[in-house]
Amino acid sequence: MSIIKIENLSRTYTETEVEVKAVNNVSLNIDEGEFTAIVGPSGSGKTTLLNMIGGLDAPTSGTISINGSSLGELGGRELIDFRLRNIGFVFQAYNLIPVLTASENIEFIMHLQGRSKAERKSRTDELLSAVGLDGRGNSRPAQLSGGQQQRVAVARALASKPRFILADEPTANLDSKSTTKLLEIMEELNKKENITFIFSTHDQRVVNKARRVVTLEDGKIVSDETRK
Amino acid sequence: MIFQIAWKNIWRSRIRSLVVIVAVALGMFGGIYTVAVMLGMADQRVQMALGNELGHLQIYQPGYRDNNDILHFFNDADSMINRIETIENVAHVTHRVRVQAMANSAGYTSGVILSGINPEKEVQVFNLKDKICVDGGEFLTNDNTRGVLIGRKLAENLRLVYYEFSESALSNLEELNFSDEIISIFKTKKDEVFRSEKELKEFLMTIMDEEKANTAIYKVENATIKFKLRNKIRFQFQDARGDLSGGMYRVAGVYQTGNNMYDASNAFVLDDVLVKQASLPERAAHEIIIRLKDSDLIDETKAQISDIYSDTETKTWIEMEPMLKTMNDMMWVFSLFFIAIILFALSFGIINTMLMAILERTREIGMLMAVGMSRKRIFNMIMTETIMLTATGAVAGMILGSIVIAATASNGIDLSAMYGDGLAEMGFSAVLTPVIGAREYLMIVALVLATGILASIYPARKALKLNPVAALRAE
Ligand SMILES: Nc1ncnc2c1ncn2[C@@H]1O[C@H](COP(=O)(O)OP(=O)(O)OP(=O)(O)O)[C@@H](O)[C@H]1O
Ligand SMILES: [Mg+2]
User: Fold this and answer.
1) CATH number at residue A76
2) In B, which residues are within 8 Å of A109 by CB distance?
3) Contact assignment for A109 to B5 by CB distance below 8 Å
């Protein structure tokens, strides 16, 4: 069953001198449990597409529905709440609050959701161990490597028990070892916990791990292949 | 958790936050201390007036206050006092017989209010007994039927003082950082007597310039003054029958309240003696003065007395000297205004700091919005941070202020060397004791909070305007 349904989605930037069709008439369905990479050259519209799926940016035309509810129909506060409950985000950088420890960063999301302290604590420990960071909960982001920080970001994204995780170039700032490790963890979460991942990347090694690869060029889908 | 994050965020840019905190702390300290000194001055003025001149409540015959007519007296003050003493909140009661008199001593005259008092009761209500000058004789006693107590200013006006560079005066002066040269000139005048302030001043002007002499005169006067105790003063007044009457008294003691006006115009003798001279009934009195146990209940007690003696005029000290109360209130309004200005100036620094903090955290705030932190929560976070920043400085300033106030309150700040006589002319004590009460602190805390809130609105709104997508893209 599709959890994300995208129909004729376009996003045109008009503030610039020349009109830019960053996303141009894209239709796409994503099912639960997918492990999908969005690829394409720089400027092809990956970030724009992910931002619209995440409800951070509004399409110029077309619709996105998640689990049957259309994002375009949600008002500002509903949208924030919707994001908080349904979507986990991992960005390329600046994922964490630097003054909080890894644990506190993870807990913070659950705090926003209004979960009890006890639940927050136990889930945080679970998540830290799921991303291979047992015992590093008390470290501040600055005391962790870039790869470890991104793993904390994945754990943070999972904390709210979202329907899927959007990751915009999560490995762009990482060396190859950290990239491999992060990918392994994401794959494992996908396989064991059936967590849906949609991530964009430039990196061919990351693309190779994906089970479905959607390629964008100039805002259009030019290929969409699913592998075994 | 918002509080925890806000607090930690403050310390991200340690120096920058510290600068603001220190600025707020110093501003608050300066503000609070100045306010405490101002309030202390006003409060002292009130305490002085209460203790020396007014008492909490005063009772008169209707009309007495209009022209101090000697005929508006109570026939039997003693029985009134006995009755009033039974009222719950009344601590002590005394009475005074008062006539407007002309004081005359060796050709010098001065208009005064001559009061007849009962020394035992008087000291329970007023603290004049503690205000007797050094070497200024003693307070009235029941057997001193010819003794009169006069203010230092009156003594000066009647030339009942002289100035002399005696051994002890010189040793006092030596401690007051006069130069050795000046001291040695003083020593040459050892056996000379200056009969008035004017003569003494003229002498000082021959050895120093006018400006120096103006400040030195006060110290020199205080060190060298001698009172002509047991000298005679003749008081003349109209008695109750309208005839000229009066009596001869000897100076028993000289007091100094710190209010020169009062000291220049009030003399005290025994009531028994004065009623006879004034042809008044034996137990007559013009005013009955009451000291209360709890001054906050003054209006209730006044009402009780008015009920018992409905045909008299009962006045609270505030009604007697509305200026005192007004002055206190005004001091407080000025103080608040003063602190508000300081805080207003500080708020610009606070706003600037917070704007910088938000600018630095653009991406982070964008990320927080993206992952689901509502605008309201972002707003609250920035607001909390600003208020905490302000409050930290304010609390530090208040603690510093309290410590310094406590340290200087016990001994007071002695301004007598600089302005002693000037302050006394206005009825203020030359030793300032800073005071500030819980109520005042609360008001200041409220002002600080208001400043924190006001200063936080602009930065918090600025943060709200951030668009998460743009913020995350920002380079
Ligand atoms: N705020 C904006 N205003 C104008 N044009 C924009 C804006 N954001 C993106 N674009 C343009 O939209 C197009 C798609 O940008 P987008 O960031 O989605 O590409 P991308 O595939 O994520 O690229 P990259 O791999 O470099 O991250 C680009 O041509 C970009 O210049
Ligand atoms: Mg991008």
Assistant:
1) 3.40.50.300
2) 371-372
3) no
Q: Which residues of A touch B5 (CB under 8 A)?
A: 97, 99-100, 108
pLDDT (tens digit per residue) in B301-358: 999 999 999 889 999 988 888 888 888 888 888 888 888 898 899 899 999 999 999 9
Helices (H) and strands (E) in chain A, counts: 7, 10
What ipTM did this prediction achieve? 0.92
H or E element, residue A220:
strand A220-226
Residues of B in contact with A93 (CB under 8 A): 363
Q: Which residues contact B141 (CB under 8 A, 6 or more apart)?
A: B119, B147
Closest chain B residue to A87, measured at CA: B371
Number of folded domains that form chain A: 1
Find the domain containing A44 and state its range.
33-59+72-226
Please indicate if any CB of chain A lies within 8 Å of the CB of B367.
yes
A54 CB near ligand 1 (under 6 Å): no
Report if pTM > 0.80. Answer: no
Residue A85 lies in a domain: yes
Q: Is A98 in contact with B12 (Cβ distance < 8 A)?
A: yes
d(CA B12, CA B25): 20
Burial of A213 per CB tally in 10 Å (0-12, 13-18, 19+): middle
Largest CA distance in chain A: 54
Q: Which of B367, B368, B469 sits opposite A57 (nearest CB)?
A: B469
